[in-house]
Amino acid sequence: MATKKLSMMDAMFLAGETRESMMHVGGLLTFTLPADAPPHFLRRVADELRGSVTVYPPWNLRLRSPDFLSNPLQAWVEDTDFDVDYHVRRSALPSPGDERELGILVSRLHSVPIDFHHPPWEVHFIEGLEGGRFALYMKVHHALVDGYTGMKLLARSLSTDPAERDTPMFFSQPPRARSEEPRDEPPPPTMASMLEAARVQYGAAREAGRAIMNVLRAARTGDRDLVSPLQAPRSILNRKISRNRRFATAQFATERVRRVARAAGGTINDVALAICGAALRRLLSEHDALPAESLTAMIPVNIRPKDDPGGGNAVAAILASLATDVGEAELRLGAIIASTKRAKEQLQGMSRSAILQYSAMLMAPLSLQQVPGAAGRLRPAFNVVVSNVPGPERPLYFRGAHLDAPYPLSIPFHGCGLNITINGYADTLNFGFTGCRDTVPHLQRIAVYGADALEELERAFPAVASDAAAVS
What we know:
By secondary structure, this protein is of the alpha+beta class. Helices cover 35% and strands 21% of the residues. Helix 6 (191-220) packs across helix 10, helix 7 (254-264) packs across helix 8 and helix 8 (268-286) packs across helix 9 (329-347).
């Protein structure tokens, strides 16, 4: 049986799997049926998938030792008894099949741990959504693929042509062929090559060390723009979590966000952070739980080359302020822009290896939160995770059904009960708020408050407000 070794980062995701901190990510896609959809559309799709379907790597891989996740010899092996019925399932919403009912069902599905005796992924077709729509929910363990890779692979199940009805699901598509040109065998290691490798790693460590010293120096001098580890205040978001999840969504037109970013001299990501910061400020204020100091966010950064097809995990991290201690929308956005600019300046000119080492140093205090009993008692490394995963720029279709929105689901963990992931699609930004049901109160309100926050930002910049009025 063929085996494939786990990378160090993938093994870390497996080691982090507990009853409460389940390390799977997911996606919720909502669709509108085509006008010519036959009766029992989803049943036909399910029957098709239950037919003679070939499953390709990595979707046919399971762990060699599923009962010992921290086994140092852990590896992926082919599942010779692959059962498509286990992985592809159908569900139906109770009436009236609105967004609330969909959110409740997906929250419940995302609360169920992955069974590592099978390849660690599931797909659920969900029917009964009002307006003749349906949804697709997928979850996959982060050790198999990261969010960037997952979105790219899932998109391969869809088509830009509404007339295309035969695109196979992602697990039935063979891996893209690599170049058939013969490759030269790497030369055997020599003393000179080993010394060169050591020199490169030493240089990366020095780069990362200089960057972390800049962060610590900023903390000593009271520079709040460059966020340091453990600068985050204690909050109700940063306690021990349970296994129960809540999930909420929000969708905004990208052009609305872009206009605000242009007026403020920032980026779309900056405005997205401002939306999250304003929503959290309002929610925590309602519960008399807003810290006097600003909440901070950990922001994953993709460090793959632009044309990388994905696979495994390749992410770095920066820390930034959410300016939740600032009352005015315009000033709050300005503070966020200043913070993200300083964080990104740290990475400029650094090698990939140095960036990864620097990120590991920033994240090192996070391990303290995983010590039993420590979550909520120690100052958190950061308060919330906010990530932005780029998605397809053109409208997509599944068997002729139009993809209305892709909402990402991510991972809360001890000491960080809320994870916000944003997925760009066509001309929209789609926010997925994944939180611990018992740690984050009234999580659904964050989505509503986010919509209010964007309107507040538009009013804060007269040029944007006039443009919005003209459009409406």
